[in-house]
Write a structure and sequence with these properties.
Elements (H helix, E strand, L loop, with lengths): L1 E6 L3 E8 L2 E9 L7 H13 L7 E6 L10 H16 L3 E4 L5 E3 L7 H4 L3 H13 L6 E6 L4 E7 L2 E2 L6 H7 L2 E2 L14 E4 L2 E4 L8 H7 L20 H10 L10 H29 L7 E5 L6 H7 L7 E4 H5 L8 H9 L1 H14 L1
Parallel strand pairs: 1-4, 4-5, 7-13, 13-14
Antiparallel strand pairs: 1-2, 2-3, 5-6, 7-8, 8-9, 8-10, 11-12
């Protein structure tokens, strides 16, 4: 039994794999910027779900070292790793990208390869799976906070970037997600009822408000408080959107607020599509490249492909449905959660393939 862990700054994601088949996948809120006690709480919930943690081997990747409760990224990697080793009380291997797998005692010497490598685990798993099945392609993982755009060909990941800074510079990491992204990051100006407004650069609303109104955000993926700490219903989401242009929800109709939400959605789709075009051009991916979608925001991918001019020729696949190896007796919910928690599934699968 192998359990793959993805320790993020906002969520803890995990995949239980047995006999090379995925048996269960889960996610817990873990606002790590509030301190390592949040990781303790999420791990306690995982232990309730899977009481036999000590009987498993554990494969860990992370991005949580970026949160601002750590002095620097090295400090974050080392402290998260130490906490995982102490909690799991079983063999723990950390995914170190090009360095392979390292034990807890080797984390400090390899922290730069461990830091924010979860995208590489997902992309490497997809590339290995695709080697004898597909041609060139790109993984599009739209999460709660970020989007990864990772090209692959002939069984290998094409990206030469490894750090978040390098990936931000080349467009392979886009800080856009469908839950936690502040709306003011999406556009400097936005239209409502035929008038174009300058946007208030305040943390009044997030993308979760947009996708609650559009009906696309699964409540199970909406684990963090709203921007104002108020309810997550339609009326409260409208009120938060209204604040972005200095209005109140009562100043427009429900139809107007839905159109307003769609305008924000279009801005986000356009940004991700532009970065996807950039990545595809940099790696000379063909117009009929395969696209593997993942993440809780995978519902955006068809429109992203359309906006990028790729929809007519690209072949679309889902990580959870097509790439993951699901146990025959596992419920369909496992597939849905594997789509959302791809890096945790990937490190569990890669550990089984590469270490055994």
């Amino acid at each position: 039994m192998v359990i793959g862990w993805d320790v993020g700054g906002a969520h803890l994601k995990a995949c239980l794999m047995q006999g090379g088949r995925v048996r269960d996948v889960a996610q817990w809120a873990c606002p790590l910027w509030q301190g390592l006690a949040q990781l303790d709480a999420a791990l306690a919930q995982a232990a309730e779900r899977w009481p036999a943690l000590a009987d498993a081997t554990h494969a860990v990747t992370m991005t949580g070292e970026m949160v601002d409760c750590f002095a620097h990224r090295e400090d974050g990697v080392c402290r998260i790793a130490a906490r995982m080793v102490a909690w799991l009380e079983a063999p723990v291997a950390f995914f170190a990208g090009d360095r392979g797998w390292v034990a807890g005692s080797e984390v400090a010497a390899n922290w730069e390869h461990i830091a924010s490598a979860n995208w590489l685990a997902s992309a490497r798993h997809v590339a290995r799976w695709a080697q004898d099945r597909l041609g060139a392609g790109v993984l599009v993982d739209v999460g709660s906070t970020t989007t990864d755009l990772i090209p692959f060909r002939a069984g290998r990941v094409l990206s030469r970037s490894r750090s978040d800074a390098q990936r931000l510079a080349c467009g392979e990491l886009v800080y856009h997600g469908v839950v936690r992204t502040p709306l003011c990051a999406l556009a400097p100006r936005i239209e409502l009822q035929g008038t174009v407004f300058n946007v208030m650069n305040e943390f009044f609303a997030t993308t979760a408000d947009v996708y609650r109104l559009s009906g696309e955000l699964d409540p199970a993926h909406d684990l963090h408080p709203s921007a104002d700490g108020a309810a997550k219903d339609r009326a409260a989401s409208q009120q938060r959107l209204a604040r972005m242009v200095g209005l109140d929800a009562r100043d427009a109709t429900a139809e107007d607020w839905l159109a307003f939400a769609q305008a924000w959605r279009a801005a986000q789709v356009a940004e991700i599509a532009g970065q996807l075009q950039r990545v595809c051009a940099a790696h000379e991916l063909p117009a009929d490249a395969w696209v593997v979608s993942a993440g809780c925001g995978a519902f955006l991918v068809p429109d992203v492909l359309d906006a990028a001019g790729l929809a007519q020729n690209a072949h679309a696949l889902d990580y959870g449905t097509d790439v993951m190896q699901r146990a025959a007796d596992a419920p369909p919910s496992v597939t849905r959660w594997a789509q959302v928690c791809a890096p945790s599934v990937a490190v569990a699968a890669l550990y089984g393939l590469e270490r055994h």
